[in-house]
């Protein structure tokens, strides 16, 4: 998470450290000058001091780049990024397959989603929607949290014959924590035991009031199996996207997040990324987490090589030095030296982190033995 020390914050605002500490105290935060506070708290303080907040990415700060601000006329509408979440086996992957009209679930080991997949669907109208799939199994909490944080909209899939279950509730929490609007897809309505009204009632207990009960969360009944309600679901997503006014400037260096990465026998490091800003191009020099490399090839969600990927596009990067961590940011930089510098800096930070962890563990062990 982004943090800043009280000292640094005071410096950047050219304010007295004591004044910053006082402002924090008023907000109920007790901190010393060397202590770090999170970005949200810092933002409140900055506003308290009458300044305007402009956040730049961590990579920019490390690079010493001033956050490039996009002017409104550079911005164009971008596709919504939609994360599909819900309890295990409620039909997330099936729903995506139906939306994509190609079958990925069939190719998956055991039919259980192990990784977060990313696809972009182009509708008959030409509108595009980017979907991120997430696994419903309880073991994959971190993946769901990441999915929710990269997304514009969460589609919560609830099986009409099973109702609200533990990972349904968890998904609701992730969406709320990430402050992302939700659309409820009530799936498997083809099943004899389907009770869509019961799903709506159960959601009420988690403060989700769907439209069919007079609330403002869109609820759509679908069947991934029978392919019903899919157009309504897409309409609901596009309506939500319109409200969000999603825009991005494609004419700047590419930036985004790593969705997942792996070492492929033939292709080496393969990183699935979501481009969130600018355009990523073949030949670009990229830093992704603590790894870097020149983009040897870009592969789209249909397995086709592409020369470039713009905002909201999921794409695979070939050519990185290693396997970057899922959730890590990636950014295009101007040259290899820069890339190496940042990558080494991050490798070092990672090591320090690990050593600190070991020291802390040793401390507790010593205490236990004392
Ligand atoms: P995880 O990724 O493991 O969390 O599961 P998932 O939510 O992606 O579920 P998946 O799409 O793998 O579907 C689970 C089972 O439900 C499969 O056997 C599907 O065929 C079945 N299924 C999915 N959608 C429907 C539907 O609309 N109707 C019926 N009858 N079955 C469905
Ligand atoms: Mg799945």
From TrEMBL:
Coiled coil: none annotated. It is found in: Cytoplasm. GTP binds at residues 86-93, 133-137, 187-190. Residues 77-245 form the Tr-type G domain. It comes from the Bacteria. Belongs to the TRAFAC class translation factor GTPase superfamily. Classic translation factor GTPase family. IF-2 subfamily. One of the essential components for the initiation of protein synthesis. Protects formylmethionyl-tRNA from spontaneous hydrolysis and promotes its binding to the 30S ribosomal subunits. Also involved in the hydrolysis of GTP during the formation of the 70S ribosomal complex. This is Translation initiation factor IF-2. It comes from Acetobacter peroxydans. The gene is infB.
């Amino acid at each position: 998470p982004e943090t800043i020390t009280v000292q640094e914050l005071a410096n950047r605002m050219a304010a007295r450290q004591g004044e910053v500490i006082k402002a924090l105290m008023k907000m109920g935060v007790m901190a010393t000058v060397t202590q770090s506070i999170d970005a949200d708290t810092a933002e409140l303080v900055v506003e308290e001091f009458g300044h305007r907040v402009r956040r730049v990415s961590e990579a920019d700060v490390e690079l010493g780049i001033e956050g490039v601000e996009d002017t409104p006329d550079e911005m164009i509408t971008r596709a919504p990024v939609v994360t599909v979440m819900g309890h295990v086996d409620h039909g997330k992957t099936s729903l995506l397959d139906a939306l994509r009209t190609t079958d990925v679930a069939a190719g998956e080991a055991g039919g259980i989603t192990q990784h977060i997949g990313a696809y972009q669907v182009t509708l008959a109208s030409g509108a595009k929607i980017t979907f991120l799939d997430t696994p419903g199994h309880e073991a994959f909490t971190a993946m769901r949290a990441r999915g929710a944080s990269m997304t514009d909209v969460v589609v919560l899939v609830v099986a009409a014959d099973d109702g609200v279950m533990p990972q349904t509730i968890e998904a609701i929490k992730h969406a709320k924590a990430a402050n992302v609007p939700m659309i409820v897809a009530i799936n498997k309505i083809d099943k004899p035991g389907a009770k869509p009204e019961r799903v709506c009632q159960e959601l009420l207990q988690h403060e989700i009031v769907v439209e069919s009960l007079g609330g403002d969360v869109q609820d759509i009944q679908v069947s991934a199996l029978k392919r019903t309600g899919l157009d309504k679901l897409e309409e609901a997503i596009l309506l939500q996207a319109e409200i969000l006014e999603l825009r991005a400037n494609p004419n700047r260096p590419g930036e985004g997040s790593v969705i997942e990465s792996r070492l492929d026998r033939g292709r080496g490091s393969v990183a699935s990324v979501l481009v969130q800003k600018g355009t990523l191009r073949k030949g670009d020099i990229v830093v992704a987490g603590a790894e870097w490399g020149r983009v040897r090839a870009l592969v789209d969600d249909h397995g086709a090589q592409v020369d470039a990927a713009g905002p909201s596009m999921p794409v695979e990067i070939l050519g990185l030095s290693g396997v970057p961590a899922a959730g890590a940011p990636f950014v295009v930089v101007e040259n290899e030296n820069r890339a190496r510098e940042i990558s080494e800096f991050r490798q070092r930070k990672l090591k320090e982190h690990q050593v600190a962890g070991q020291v802390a563990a040793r401390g507790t062990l010593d205490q236990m033995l004392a």
